[in-house]
Structure formats: structure tokens, C-alpha cells
Design brief:
single chain; 126 residues; 2 domains; 4 helices; rod-shaped; binds zinc ion
Amino acid sequence: MSDITINGVRFHQQHRKCCRTCTHGPGGMGHGPYWYAFGIVGKTTYIGKELPALVAEHLDGLVARKDELAAKRAELVQQLDQLRTQVQHLDTLRRALDGLTDGGFIDTKALKELGLEAFSKVLKIL
Ligand SMILES: [Zn+2]
């Protein structure tokens, strides 16, 4: 099995030699392979011959609920898009208000939406 990474912890299999003259394992690579966990802060933890059942359950869960996870992600992306559109819209309104008070460009459509269309009368004579 290749490397597995969960929450920033990498699980990796390695052979280990018990002494300098150890000839165990294929090609004298040493005993094992054994699983080790490499943490984010550089801490290495010996796991053993088998991965903890929780790791397998975690991976199985990722496979079994793949569609559900993808759907949840798509939903979040859609919500983010809606919020971005909302933010852009609110920023347009804010800019229109700033334009009104600073003498800058006035977005009449935005003024109307803000209930301030009375201020756009002067634009008609310009
Ligand atoms: Zn050995």
C-alpha cells in the first residue's frame, strides 16, 4: 500500500534493520514493513504491521461517501458564488452612495434601489 495522508499526518511503510548485519526481509531490507505516522511537526510515530482500524474505516468512508462529499462541496461552491454575487451587489450600492456624497460617479440604478432616486434628478439636467 502506498502512502496515506489524513489530516496532515502521513502514514508510510518502511522496513527496519534490527542491527547493522540484519539480513531479514526481501533483499535484506530489514524487518517489516511497518507503518509509521509522520506528523506535521516532524514527529514520527511507530504504528506497527497493520494500520489502525480507524484509518481503514476513514478511507472506506471516503470511498463509500464520495458522491455525498462531492454533492456537499458543489453546494458550498454554489453558496459561495451566491454570496460573492451578493457582496458585489452591496459593493455597487456602497460605491453609488460614496459617489453621491463625494461628488463622484453616481449609479442611478443603484440610487433607485437605495430609495435615493430624488438625488438623480440633477443628473437629468447635466
Ligand atoms: Zn534483523
